[in-house]
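Re: duplicated header lines in exported structure tokens

Our pipeline writes sequence and tokens for each protein into one text file. With two proteins the header for the second block appears twice in some exports. Here is an export where it did not happen, for reference. First protein block:
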Amino acid sequence: MYEQIFDPVGNSLALSTIFAVLPLLTIFLLLGVFKVKAQWAGLASLCVALIVAVFVYSMPAGQALSTAGEGATFGIFPIMWIVVNAIWIYSMTVESGHFDVLRRSFGTVSSDQRVQAIIVAFAFGALIALAFLPVVLLVIDRVVIAREEPYLERRFGADYAEYKRQVRRWL
């Protein structure tokens, strides 16, 4: 079983962090500086992340690819859920005539479409955060914490058992 080493580059957390930041740096540079299309920048960043995981952090290649697939699934599902529901709600409001009411309502807030877009994005983001909060908490509890606890028990033994006895889990 793979156990992550947090400082694989010269036993230095700072040097290891530089390598861990490479995928983020890749996507920011490709999108912001070189104006590469988002899908290609994302794919390049994924490739850099896989290279860093396998060659710097010594993660098994199969597990790295599996993790990339899981990340893609967890990334694509919420986006598609939002897009499909947004199209459905838009179609429903247009057919029912309520879209004109919404258009007039937003027009009274500001005539600037940029301000209207910010308000809609803020409201939509808050709604999404509320909708997905239980899912995030469930994933943290059942996936992240459940996988880390056996490792912590093996690594720290009685100290960790005493810690668990004294400190109540928040989930």
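Second protein block, exported in the same file:
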Amino acid sequence: MDSLHQAQQVVFAVDMLLHPEGGQHDASFRHVGAGALNVIQVDRLGQAFSSNKVLDCGSERGSARSGSRSQTTNRNKLAQSFPTEERMNPAREPAPEGPPLLAIDGTQARITLRRPSLRNSLNDEDLGTLLAHFAQVDADPGVRVLVLGADTHGQARPVFSAGYHVGGLDKPGSGPQRFEKIPDALAALRPITVCAMGGSVYGGATDLVLACDLRIALAGGEWRMPAAALGLHYYPSGLRRYVARFGIDLAKRAFLTAQPLPVELLAAQGLFVQLAGRDDFDAAVDTLVAQVAALAPLAAQATKRSLNEIAAGRDDEAAMRERERLTQASADFAEGRRAFAERRPPQFHGR
């Protein structure tokens, strides 16, 4: 049995625990057959990722039969079935799986989880890669926004991440204490962070979502925290984030029932900026990222820091007054006032 198959079996076992009713575990590793065309999108950073849409060539919507029509004509007709911002290349192979990938394009950075066949579960290599990516992003003064997303290609039901891979729990120096460093580092980043939660989320990965500043979720997904069902007391910083974002009652519901929570319930509590359907999800993320990237970076990042300190009970009046003074004296503030008077979009440079 090769290592990939062994890993799939481990995730399969955890999935059976999380979904004893069935209906999801068997589809997670199902390969798309020759009778389907995978729709591949290219985001604004030029990085390919899956829209998790599968066009069945035998269906009424996607019928693309050979015959007298050319292959080019078939592809053009198929492409018309989807929004124009999506690019489809039926012949293209899925992007290779591996550690999280970082792409930086000007003021925007994107980190993509890339193990869809394992429901984007995270192993120790992935954790180290995420910490390195976070450090690189934080050290780049030109980056204003970081998007955390996931490749859900080939999944019957999209899963943003199934959390920490249980295979690492018995390794020395691994487990919850190692995983805790990842959301803590993510929450402390200088740029504004946006989670593009394009599927359901489980276990420790829920804390990655909570560690982001802003979140957009794919409608119809679920959120599950099974720590107590596995016999585990969750780590302290994660519990604090849950109580801060959920409130004590909903946090207790998540931990003390270990039952899935629909994202619609969490959206009603204000956890997400927006819920979006599959057709609108990428455009919704792009719109939010563009809005955040257009803000004055000095003011936005200083305000983020102050808000986080207030939420943690560590606010310092003198420090916040100093940040206020620095932004008032900045070239960005002068540009913002000029742009307002001239009725044009401001051009901020972070100084």
